[in-house]
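thought: fold this chain, then report.
action: predict
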Amino acid sequence: MTQDPGGQDPGGQDPATQDPTAQDPTAQDPPPTALFDRRTRDAAAERPFRGSGRTARRPNIVFILADDLGWGDLGCFGSLHNRTPSLDALASQGLRFTHGYATSATCSPTRLGLYTGRYPGRLTAGLEEPLGTRDEHHGIPADHPTLPSLLVDVGYRTAMIGKWHCGWLPWFSPLKAGFQTFYGNLDGAVDYFGHFDTSGQPDLWDGEEPVTEQGYYTEIIGRHAAAYIREAGDDPFYLQVNFTGAHWPWEGPDDEELSRHIADEPADTHEESLRRLFHADGGSLAKYGEMVAALDASIGEVLAALDAKGLRENTIVVFASDNGGERWAFMWPFVGEKGDLEEGGIRVPLIVRWPAVIDAGQVSDLPNATGPSPRIVDTVLVDYAAVGSVAARWAS
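observation:
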């Protein structure tokens, strides 16, 4: 198993000589009831970002996007309540951005900006926040250059697992926008067990074919993403992993009965279907913590798959949220939440790991965004001839 080169952990040991479990920043945390800011310990070991390497090989890219996760919902960003060992470890192994921003305060415009490299309003679909109109005008046109389509042109395999929310069939889908493989949902929200969308219809797809699968959706996404990595061949790949956690409805991994109750509520119109999925009377800080913990565990499964294949060293892993959090999320000290243009609505946790090029334990206060033309892509791709041409065309 390839380990992170360089850097010192808080205990002074070289991470390259440690077992991965020894790098878990939460290993010595007090009980969940204790107020403990993990940054108090971990930030002391962080160093200002400085590029430290080059590699002749084209990197794999795994971009993990959470849904409605607040800026302070991870231990490495100051959460006093949520348990996020996988993401805390990811931050300690790479670069943590303290000023990460989403392209928009709602989900679909951010995704449009990420995939097209353009300001969302350049497309009709990007003017809806969030996207709800289902017709041939609201989506990413099939002939529009996208990050996945340009990467395919230079020999990458591309896949999306999870949430799309950039247009509906028969006009739009991930397969029409450059992703060669897709398994997930098309709408902006689904029930975690029933997998029905805001219109009350089943919304789980393998490519462009409807499918059914039992289980908690966060875990399903993690499982399929990890399987894609395990089955990876020799060609470099770009894998987009889009979780719906921690978006409403407020269901944890043990809430299948609650899901059935929500599904049984009468919903004769789209508005009623949206209302029941919005779950206005549900949730709590504790329930939200369960959802965040499930998200973190599934991300851990994806990262473990990279390690098992020996791909950690030359894989760019990016983690971000599509916008600020809402209701139960933690955005202090910022004002605003999802849907607002104050800091709470657009500042998000942002982490990048690439051991071959970025030393562990680094932090950057420079503003960065998930699109359009995000610096994280410019930074990690522009130095490589084959992929650098993609970054240049994608940003144009």
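thought: worth noting. Confidence is low (pLDDT under 50) at residues 1-27, 373-396.
final: tokens above.
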